[in-house]
Specification:
Layout (H helix, E strand, L loop, with lengths): L1 H29 L2 H12 L5 H5 L1 H4 L2 H15 L12 H29 L5 H30 L1 H20 L16 H14 L3 H20 L1 H8 L6 H24 L4 H18 L5 H29 L5 H29 L2 H26 L16 E5 L23 E5 L11 E6 L5 E7 L21
Parallel strand pairs: 1-2, 2-4
Antiparallel strand pairs: 3-4
Helix pairs in contact: 1-2, 1-7, 1-8, 2-6, 5-6, 5-8, 6-14, 6-15, 7-8, 7-12, 7-14, 9-15, 10-13, 10-14, 10-15, 10-16, 12-14, 13-14, 13-16, 14-15
Amino acid sequence: MRWYLTGIVVSGFGTTAMWLVSGIWVKSLTGSDSLAALAAFALWAPVLLGPLLGTLADRVRRRPLLVVLNLAMALLLPVLLRVESADRVWLLFAVLVLYGAQGTVHEAAEQALVATTLDERRLGTFNGLRMTANESMKLIAPLVAAGLFARYGGGPVALLDAASFALAAVLFALMPVREERPERAAERHWWRETAEGVRLLRASAVLRPLVATGGFTMLLAGVNGAAIYAVVDSGLGRSPAYAGVLYAVQGVGSVLAGLLTGPLLRRVPERVLAAVGLALFAVAVGARALPYEATALAASAVIGLGMPWVLVATMTAVQREAPAEALGRVAATANSLIFAPNALAIALGAGLVAVLDVRVLLPVLAVAGTAWAAGLALRGAGRGEERSPGEGEGEGPGKGKGTTGGTGENPAEGPAGGTGGNLAQGPGEGQGGGTRENPAQGQAQGQAKSPGGGPGEGQAEGQGGGLAVRRGQGAGSMEGGA
């Protein structure tokens, strides 16, 4: 997947440059701080439609979709060369909204493509490298973008971004990926398919707390971001430009986080990594209340280390748990729930900073974050849901009969139609037992490779409809070993 990572680096460079310049561009043309802030909102707004937009990623093959999305932006961005005065700022806002919508679909298609083409054991490592690639561009692109804008204006930055999209499209097209064409149902209802993605996320006891943790982390991050200038000014006695130094140090921490994520996820469950990441983030936010420059720099590095762990752990869990045919919808829904609170928290944080001293506000955020992290860690440990094998019982070598109820890494022993290593021997019959992770019962048919020989066929019968969340028996159909 080196072509994919190269595409991420290229498109990430252009995207970071454009996102930085958009607000500056609006400010320079209109002189309005509020309109400049709306530029960021225009980019973020489409994430609220994530569940709806993510459905597109499940209706078509993902790699061609990525190519088309990148080519479309390459053709659209040169339109911004016409934005030369305040009366044409509306054109910039229109492009930014389309930019955000493209990014929402692109993110869902990326996550789904990776999950369906990469070995599950490598997902954590790959997502960590993806994070490192993105964060590395955030260290370089702002400097290039600021220099280009100061010298030539916003037009060249738009062309640079367009070129990065075009190159990314070529790189995605070169990926040696084979995808099956999604099955077309007799009747397709966009809203019904969208609702299915939401239902699958709600049905998973593994994903619900992780997505909630991601959203809560980004809520705290939004308030923390709004307080950064108060920390720099009243806390450290520095000029506002010093915030750039803190963000640069945070970026270094994020690069390190991406490199460490893969090895950590091979040793601990996603829930544990997310809890540790949130705890580190929260403690570091609280440490920013101390009026010491060395402490502020160290806290920025730890914030950059902890926050990505929460996001990558959640992303990896979504890729492992969601059924392949609905990954786009589930991933987009999760992204909406995670990142929408960040945009709302920025406005909330601006109000809180006006009425609360940061020496009070930041410790409050730290206490809230560490309490949530502790609750997440204790909740999962108490239920023992990670990597616990399912229950099953067999009746002779030729016929296995079991009740599925396992949650975690290994599927239930007994019926064919599961995933992973515990597979039924020979033809097997099983009753799909709903679990707290996936309460829906359903019908599944597939083949299981017998440890002693050839494939055996099995059938699990139950009740329900729709799609199944992976790692448990649920409604829908799936092939064994998928």
